[in-house]
Specification:
330 residues; transmembrane helix; Helix Hairpins; UPF0194_transport; 6-stranded antiparallel β-barrel; alpha+beta; 4-stranded antiparallel beta sheet; Elongation Factor Tu (Ef-tu), domain 3; OB fold (Dihydrolipoamide Acetyltransferase, E2P); 16 strands; 38% helix; Membrane fusion protein (Multidrug efflux system)
């Protein structure tokens, strides 16, 4: 006996088709709604930009060894390279001689400051009244005898005796007011002279100590946390104090820049999610700032920051593709 199932299937077919249509419409509406409220704008000429921290050496010498790979993450204070200073054994010997000479000069200054010399000085004082009266009397007698001798009133011997007495009286007068005084004279070395000599000695000692230490390799340390980037300096290069050896990119000094038209910028907001593809890596970023055009520039600049732990291998001027999520205002 055959059973007719058409009556049982008919209701199912009757209601299943509308349900299927409803499901299809619901899926399509969901896709439309999602795309309407979760769309994105793609930028293909985004560039990695920013400023780098310079890592400079304070030592003249030769770059002996590099300890970090290009593009590797580093911590502030981490050793990046080793430098052999330009200090020879001859330099050490010259500095040792300089220290010895400075020590001798200082010792001599100290010794001279404690010594003095004696000097005999002749001082004149006024003659006594008795010496002066005796000289006046002898001089008057000599003058008188000269006049008498000129007219033949006295003999030559008498005249010469009076003249000799006057000369003796004058010599006695001069000697009576000249005295010998012994003075003690200091060396002339001042406290400032000693201090100068001491400073020179300390400076030469410090220079010798520094040079002796610098015969060993000196480490160049990272100036900041970030990603290390090589410059054009190679191992074996001669370097000078103040020369930049490495660059370091930090999370707050490197970002992505995309340029957008006014029509594109309408629905892009600060804080928007950005899907970035840089150097073959997919990185999540965030719109940090939107800068309006200035001067002749007609496009807006979108600054996109990326997490510091995602910066490995990323360098300035690299190109990236960025999809920035947007939401319609409607």
């Amino acid at each position: 006996m055959e059973t007719d199932i058409s009556r049982k299937i008919a209701p199912i077919i009757k209601f299943a088709l509308p349900m299927l249509l409803i499901i299809i419409l619901g899926i399509n509406f969901g896709i439309w709604a999602y795309s309407h409220y979760h769309r994105h704008i793609s930028f293909y000429d985004v560039r990695v930009v920013g400023t780098l921290v310079n890592n400079k050496t304070l030592t003249n010498g030769t770059l002996e060894k590099v300890l970090i790979k290009d593009g590797q993450k580093v911590k502030a204070g981490q050793a990046l390279a080793q430098i052999k200073p330009n200090v020879t054994q001859k330099d050490i010997e010259n500095l040792q001689q300089a220290v010895q000479k400075a020590q001798e000069q200082y010792d001599n200054m100290v010794a001279l400051s404690k010594s003095s010399t004696t000097r005999t000085v002749a001082h004149s004082s006024g003659p006594s009244a008795a010496d002066y009266n005796q000289y006046q009397a002898a001089a008057a007698q000599a003058s008188k005898m000269q006049q008498l001798y000129s007219i033949g009133a006295v003999s030559r011997a008498e005249y010469e005796a009076a003249a000799a007495a006057a000369s003796s009286a004058q010599a006695a007068l001069n000697a009576s007011h000249t005295t010998q005084v012994v003075n003690t004279v200091p060396s002339g070395v001042t406290a400032k002279d000693i201090e100068t000599a001491k400073t020179r000695l300390e400076q030469t000692k410090q220079a010798l100590e520094t040079a002796q230490k610098n015969t060993n390799l000196v480490s160049l340390e990272a100036a900041a946390d970030g990603i290390l980037y090589y410059t054009n300096i190679k191992i074996g290069s001669k370097i000078t104090a103040g020369e930049n050896i490495f660059n370091i990119g930090t999370s707050d000094s490197m970002w992505l820049e995309a340029k957008a038209d006014k029509q594109q910028i309408v629905n892009i907001k600060k804080g928007a999610y950005a899907d970035c593809s840089i150097n073959g890596k997919d990185i999540n970023g965030t719109v940090a700032d939107i800068i309006a055009p200035a001067g002749k520039e007609k496009k807006y600049i979108i600054k996109i920051f990326i997490p510091s732990d995602k910066m490995d291998g990323i360098k300035p001027n690299m190109l990236a593709t960025v999809n920035i999520a947007i939401q319609n205002n409607a």
